[in-house]
Amino acid sequence: MATIFRKELADYFTSIRIFILFLLVFGASAAGLFASFQGIRGIGTETGFVFLKLFTTSGTAIPSLTTFIALFVPIIGIALGFDAINSERSSGTLSRILSQPIYRDNVINAKFLAGIATLSIMILATILIVSGYGLRMIGVAPNAEEIIRLFLYLVITITYGAFWMGLAILFSVLFRRIASSLLVSIALWLFFGIFWGGLIVPAIARTTEVYLMLQRISPATLFGEATEVLLHPISRGAGLLTAGEEVSYMLFNPLSLGQSVLIVWPHITGLIGITAVCFAVSYVLFMRQEIRAT
Amino acid sequence: MAGKIVIETKELTKSYDGVTVVDRLNLHIREQEIFGLLGPNGAGKTTTILMLLGLTEPASGSAWVYGYNPTREPLKVKRLAGYLPEKVGFYENLTARENLRFIAELNGISYTEANRKIDELLEMVGIGDKADLAVGKFSRGMKQRLGIADVLIKSPKVAFFDEPTAGLDPEGINQILDIIANLPKMGATVVISSHQLYQVQRVCQSIGILSKGKTVIEGSLDQLGREALAGGNYRIEVEIAQPNPKLMDILNKVPGVRKVETEGNLLLVNADSDLRAEIAKVVVQSDTSLIQMKIQEFSLDDIYMKYFHEDARLTEE
Q: Rounded distance, CA B84 to CA B249, Å?
């Protein structure tokens, strides 16, 4: 399995696709930095957590870094996974690999792990670049809690990317044609990104409870809320409590780390859960699939 | 053939969505022989190979490869067996050497050992000078050669080639077949699936003909030829100077002659045995000038056609 993992990783890093994705990611980091450069002076520092503001502040016209990341992570995930299995199938390499003395699950495990490794490197690089330049820009060092919050944000972002990658791998097992798996993955991403939260749920939900429940089916909402709570310590999340009139009685002070984590715990669990489900389904399908040369 | 049987199938059956593709197949392949798995497209050749490799599970029946059951112990079989799929594919962005090294690594061959073998094999299949060229630039014939090197890198005890000559030019076909013909000397048992009879005839010692998933016939080529001949299928072609209508009746009276057909100056005699001497005698006695006479040798083609005609008749009935 280490052999396939190494080869997949090497493939990712020598492909033009990843080069373009890295450009995109670094462009997004630069834009995010610029946004916080524009906006960070106007923000009150009375609640503390100045360092986190680097990631969440938007400029006059440019959205914040977290918005960019929320946009790009699914694309990276899909780009890493959409042709994982069916390109090997159509190029005829799959039957050659599977006739070697290795277990079939090694192939899909190695691909998934190599994808996660690539994804992690990309996201970690983004966060570190922004932290480094941001540190130089604002001159305020992060405190321990901020570092922990950023780390949790990193983990949840990787999980979110892994979900989209798992989904794309699932479609690459399911569909024989690369174009189909890519289109279906992107269609699903657009559906959850735009239509579900923006149009469908507001149209069908009668009460706030139902509204929130339906919203949280979408992984994009889960990720968005988790980001919000982790990086905006002041935020209570979009829970039932804050949806009603109680908002006006809320004290304007940041939540402790433990409380923030408590709020996003279900979100993290949910994201890991759907990622695991995607991977498990593609795993089972792949194990049972007929491997023919044509 | 004296070799012991190393690949065996017993009532091997596979069906897809209710359609039986391989139907109670019984094959026996001996050690270090080249076995031709023949049959028209869709006869179940590839499926049989996949089942022997453990890439597909049989619906019923069993297969044994060097004493291992491919369904239960696929890894042990895959360690012994090399497989060249019909549509062989390589990682196009990697060089020939890198592609082979990857397979070598998957087989647990050490780095230095792999390098030595790669050079040796690429030289053997005739693409030694292209070792460091990306496979994307390879032609079909070169990929097929690389495919053979790819099968051999693990020093297999049994090598499966699925349509190894498909899509190659005549020169390429000959070279590929020469390489394959040499494999038993290196200690490998070879199974070739093909519908190209003449090519298989050149290199195979034994054949099994499949049709609609059933074995139509199986055995060594010599034995099959004899069987076909024993069925009364000597065919003698007699060329004479000018047509002679009386000759037909005379020939029909020769003991052992079954049927005589005429095609202008050619007489086609079907006989139970080699009657050339008798035929020559009666032709000359009937005042006809005999130009030449030859006996048709049975090729695989005839065997193939014979069984397929029978098969076609059976299905029509």
A: 56
Minimum-distance CB partner of A3 among B56, B93, B106? B106
Give the residue carrying structure tokens 């990104």: A193
pLDDT in tens, A183-225: 999 999 999 888 887 788 888 878 877 888 888 888 888 898 8
Q: What CA–CA distance (Å, rounded) separates A175 from A83?
A: 10
Beta-sheet pairing, B34-38 with B206-211: parallel
pLDDT digits (tens, 9 = 90+) for B252-293: 888 878 778 888 788 888 777 778 888 888 888 888 888 888
Chain A residues with beta carbon closer than 8 angstroms to that of B45: none
A198 in reach of chain B (CB within 8 A): no
Tens of pLDDT, residue by residue over B12-35, are 888 888 888 888 888 888 888 899
Residue B149, min C-alpha distance to chain A (Å): 13
Provide the shortest C-alpha distance from residue B85 to chain A (in Å). 6
Largest CA distance in chain B: 79
In the numeric block, the tokens 């079909």 are attached to B140
Measured between beta carbons, the chain B residues lying within 8 angstroms of A290 are 56
Instruction: Test B83 with A99 for CB contact under 8 angstroms.
Output: yes
Rg of chain B over CA atoms, in angstroms? 24
- Out of A7, A92, A98, closest to residue B88 by CB: A92
Q: For tokens 């003449």, what's the residue?
A: B198
Q: How close, in Å, is residue B79 to chain A by CA atoms? A: 5
Paired strand residues for B217: B209
User: Residue B281 is encoded by which pair of tokens?
Assistant: 């005698």
Closest residue, chain A, to B90 (C-alpha): A93
ipTM rounded to 2 decimals: 0.79
What integer pLDDT is reported at residue A294 of this predicted model?
A: 45
Distance CA B106, CA A97 (A): 8
Whether A10 contacts chain B with CB within 8 A: no
A128-139 in b/e burial notation, b at 16+ Cβ within 10 A?
A: ebbbebbeeebe
- Measured between beta carbons, the chain B residues lying within 8 angstroms of A95 are 55, 83, 85
CB B193 within 8 A of CB B163: yes
